[in-house]
Design a protein that fits this description.
By secondary structure, this protein is mainly α. The chain has one domain: Rhodopsin 7-helix transmembrane proteins (Rhopdopsin 7-helix transmembrane proteins). Strands 1-3-2 form a 3-stranded antiparallel β-sheet, with no helix packed on it. The N and C termini lie far apart (71 Å). The N terminus and C terminus are likely disordered. Keywords: Chromophore, Membrane, Photoreceptor protein, Receptor, Retinal protein, Sensory transduction, Transmembrane, Transmembrane helix. Belongs to the archaeal/bacterial/fungal opsin family. It is a multi-pass membrane protein. Its main location: membrane.
Length: 279
Amino acid sequence: MKLNGVQDIVLQTPETQREIFEFVFEDTLLALSFVANIALAGLTILFIVAMARGVTDPRTKLIVVATMLISIVSISSYTGLTSGLTLRFIEMPAGHPLAGEEVLTMWGRYLTWTFSTPFILLVLGMIAGSNLTKILTTCAMTIAMCVTGLAAALTTSSYLMRWWWFVLSSTFFLVIVYVILVDWTREAERTGTSDLFTKLKILTVVGWFGYPILWALGVEGFALLEVWMTSWGYSVLDVITKYIVTVLIVLYVIDEPETITADADYGSTLKGVGAPADD
């Protein structure tokens, strides 16, 4: 299929799933942005299985399993994108730079983030020594962030409404960032995991800021980037915030340091962490 100017952005008529699949593989760069993540997610799963065979502590096992689930979700989701199952062409509303044209929307990526990001936050919260209530609250916030982000991508009734969904999603995102940078940083200092947590929070937070930026610059927002550019941007960010972060976590916890195993409470690393300070 040959489309002039915006070949890998726009199709003029609705397409079947098979045609979408063929369209993806006609664009080598777009296809590679999916396939590369399937390969990396698979390698990460194998790495975790190989490295964590000797883990015996229940709390450490929970962290390891949660990190592995991040890649399990990713490999499933990227397979959906590669097959065309979770791709869709939608007509952009009036006011959008590509108004009236049908644009490829990778809505399956939002499935990846909805199901994988809570596991990332679960692990970060446990390493920081946060309490279960705060961990579950941030997980709920990230689900809200991803769902409203999906709404922004799929809304075709109004360009303004797309951006309103984007603002809502970004608001939830900023709440999560605050918890990571402020609350969990303070708790990590008290539990003795601040060295690892500092590395993880930098990779995670800096990487996560890239997602809304790519959304705004890509075809879903101002359409300054082509689809394959946006897709590769998301894929690179996934590599940083999922696989690299996972490797760092596993390499740290497999030695079962006291800062990870010191307490039986799965919501807190050390006794007293998260408890109100004395007046």
